């Protein structure tokens, strides 16, 4: 990714956003990096260059793109943040995605192996029906317009969008897509339909498998029989590519068919390939490219200067993060919207043979102790059990700290990656490994007690319920294992999508949530399915049961409550954004956050929203609740605290990096993990008068 410093001719603000840098430009105009307020999620702001601002056709096209982005907002496309097609210049703001374009990913990491390529195309094909249901055709789908983010691919740039509701579109320009990826009907001025995007899917699949696309002139080379002349693919992959790239749009498969065929091929190549989440199907080299983009430190706002524009330079890899600290009161912001006082310099690197305890940074104000975790990016919640705080890192290291002092009790390196929190019960710690094993360690020593394979797919978050271990997997299966020996007791199928969150057990029933959007109730004795209830959106976090009611948060922007006995829906509370986190039950209340910064307190009995608060940044994981307070971590690195008996939420602790793992309270401490691989144990009695004033988020509209 290339960024350029702002030049003399570039604006310093657009529509209330501070402009930070130039992301890129094309024939229509420039795209800027901006932010609403210091630390707020960055946005990409697209503009129209001066020579086209007075052209009615370009203004109309820009307005159409803005309307489409607003209608599509999210679920495989960037979240819409605002636009002014009549401004000078016209501008359109969407969420900035910290991810490389597919073209860059393949250039830097090489072609994807067949499972990864099929998984990518499968996820792209799942996005297209949402675009097409709105009567829209992208028309310029290509590797440069696909960002590969951690949660999966994201389609961008709807500048050549076709609205099928306007068959006589006056903006049907001569530019008709990109050579090789543009369907033949573009080039020959024939009617264009949704099948044009399917054609581009086939070309993208060929590109990611080969690293290049054989293009002659405006199109891909063809054989005498009219099929694309693309070599170096397996027979099965070529058939899918050729069918998608058929000359006749009527011969191309529907996106749902592409999903099914790509899914079957991905599993045939590598059984048990995980469904959502790019890190589950990208090879290591591509994962490194994605991490490098995630770790880029974006430029900070500065007062406007009017010197000559600097040359475009690649962004450097970030320096080690600055030490975490309790949030100090900040002075008034600079005109550009950033605090005047910079963070302290990062600590020097540890000695080559430092022990785990030596790797811990010194205690910080408000934090009783902090520790550095192995690996590069951490996103599983810590586990508190019998005086220990246990964390499992992506590199397979499981480490137990004395919860009160931060001393390392034991550390064990497992063979496979650990991508979800462990579970505890008695003397046993259950760890799901991404290499298709689940193992049990002794809580006090880390000694391995048993390990069991989980078949052809990676297991997900486990839970220990009495003498059983229950866990789902990436193919929709749920397993019950004997907690003492690891023997398989039963297996049950939900849908055909991943079960990510930990199951919940209540009154002889097991409740699980699936990425297919449904909640399933199983008999705890043998796994028999008792009922299924849809929510309308993917379910990432697990369920929670309170008062005979099952609560789940859905990416369909709702929190649903179902009667545990028969699955009858009792309530559905709208949220401001998709819900990824597991709800938390405490004292007759349900607390859950959403990806647009909303935090909700619900009545467990009636399911209605009794508290709604705007935190200003995304809430990715579950909150922590104790007798007096609720704590929620956000993607800007802050932990917010509010009293359960009323009042607003206040930023209370700065973790120094996005908080994407669940928070935990215990032993008078709040345990927080940031994506910079640091674990913080913060005194719950830390002086809350030192909290910083909350950033002023936009008021949350009524759902």
UniProtKB/TrEMBL annotation:
It comes from the Bacteria. This is Serine/threonine-protein kinase. Residues 17-265 form the Protein kinase domain. Pfam families: Pkinase, PQQ_2. It is an enzyme of class 2 (transferase). CDD domains: STKc_PknB_like. Residues 300-367 are annotated as: Disordered. GO terms for molecular function: protein serine/threonine kinase activity. Transmembrane segments: none annotated. InterPro entries: Kinase-like_dom_sf, PQQ_b-propeller_rpt, PQQ_rpt_dom, Prot_kinase_dom, Quinoprotein_ADH-like_sf, Ser/Thr_kinase_AS, WD40/YVTN_repeat-like_dom_sf. Its EC number is 2.7.11.1.
């Amino acid at each position: 990714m290339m960024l350029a410093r702002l030049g003399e001719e570039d604006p310093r603000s657009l529509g209330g956003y501070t402009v930070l840098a130039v992301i890129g430009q094309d024939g229509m105009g420039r795209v800027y990096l901006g932010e609403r307020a210091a630390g707020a999620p960055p946005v990409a702001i697209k503009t129209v260059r001066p020579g086209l601002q007075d052209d009615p056709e370009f203004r109309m096209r820009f307005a159409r793109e803005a309307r489409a982005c607003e209608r599509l907002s999210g679920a495989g496309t960037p979240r819409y943040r605002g636009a002014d097609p009549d401004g000078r210049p016209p501008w359109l703001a969407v969420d900035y995605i910290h991810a490389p374009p597919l073209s860059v990913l393949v250039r830097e990491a090489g072609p994807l192996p067949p499972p990864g390529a099929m998984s990518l195309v499968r996820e792209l094909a799942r996005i297209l029906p949402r675009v097409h249901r709105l009567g829209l055709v992208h028309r310029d789908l290509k590797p440069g317009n696909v960002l590969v983010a951690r949660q999966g691919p994201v389609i961008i740039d709807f500048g050549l969008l076709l609205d099928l509701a306007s068959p006589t579109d006056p903006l049907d320009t001569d530019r008709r897509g990109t050579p090789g990826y543009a369907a033949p009907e573009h080039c020959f001025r024939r009617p264009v339909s949704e099948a044009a995007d399917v054609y581009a899917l086939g070309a993208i699949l060929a590109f990611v498998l080969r690293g290049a696309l054989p293009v002659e002139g405006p199109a891909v080379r063809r054989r005498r029989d009219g099929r694309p002349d693309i070599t170096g693919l397996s027979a099965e992959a070529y058939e899918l590519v050729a069918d998608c790239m058929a000359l006749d749009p009527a011969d191309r498969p529907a996106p749902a068919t592409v999903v099914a065929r790509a899914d079957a091929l991905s599993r045939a190549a590598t059984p048990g390939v995980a469904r959502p989440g790019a890190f589950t199907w990208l090879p290591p080299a591509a994962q490194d490219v994605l991490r490098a983009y995630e770790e880029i430190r974006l430029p900070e706002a500065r007062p406007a200067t009017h010197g000559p524009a600097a040359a475009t330079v690649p962004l450097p890899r970030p320096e080690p993060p600055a030490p975490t600290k309790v949030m100090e009161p900040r002075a008034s912001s600079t005109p550009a919207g950033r605090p005047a006082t910079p963070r302290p310099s990062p600590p020097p690197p540890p000695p080559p043979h430092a022990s785990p305890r030596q790797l811990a940074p010194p205690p910080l104000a408000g934090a009783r102790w902090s520790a550095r975790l192995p690996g590069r990016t951490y996103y599983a919640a810590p586990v508190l059990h019998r005086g220990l705080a246990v964390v499992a890192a992506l590199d397979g290291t499981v480490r137990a700290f004395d919860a009160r002092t931060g001393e390392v009790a034991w550390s064990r390196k497992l063979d496979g990656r650990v991508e979800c929190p462990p579970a505890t019960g008695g003397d046993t710690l259950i760890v799901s490994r991404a290499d298709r094993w689940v193992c049990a360690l002794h809580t006090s020593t880390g000694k391995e007690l048993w390990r069991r394979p989980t078949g052809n797919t990676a297991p997900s978050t486990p839970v220990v319920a009495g003498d059983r271990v229950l866990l789902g997997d990436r193919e929709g299966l749920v397993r019950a294992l004997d907690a003492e020996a690891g023997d398989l007791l039963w297996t049950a199928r939900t849908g055909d999508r991943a079960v990510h969150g930990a199951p919940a057990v209540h009154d002889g029933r097991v409740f699980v949530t699936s990425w297919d959007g449904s909640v399933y109730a199983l008999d705890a004795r043998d796994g028999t399915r008792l009922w299924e209830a849809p929510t309308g959106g993917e379910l990432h976090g697990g369920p929670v049961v309170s008062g005979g009611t099952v609560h789940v948060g859905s990416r369909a922007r709702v929190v649903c409550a179902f009667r545990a006995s028969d699955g009858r829906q009792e309530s559905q509370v709208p949220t401001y954004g998709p819900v990824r986190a597991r709800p938390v039950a405490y004292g007759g209340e349900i607390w859950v956050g959403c990806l647009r910064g909303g935090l909700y307190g619900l009545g467990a009995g009636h399911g209605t929203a009794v508290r709604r608060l705007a935190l200003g940044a995304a809430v990715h994981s579950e909150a922590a609740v104790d007798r007096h307070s609720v704590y929620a971590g956000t993607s800007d690195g802050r932990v917010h605290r509010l009293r359960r008996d009323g009042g607003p939420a206040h930023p209370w602790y700065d973790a120094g990096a996005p908080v994407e793992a669940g928070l935990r309270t215990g032993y008078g401490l709040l345990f927080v993990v940031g994506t910079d691989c640091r674990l913080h144990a913060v005194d719950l009695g830390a002086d809350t008068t030192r909290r910083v004033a909350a950033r002023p988020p936009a008021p949350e509209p009524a759902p």
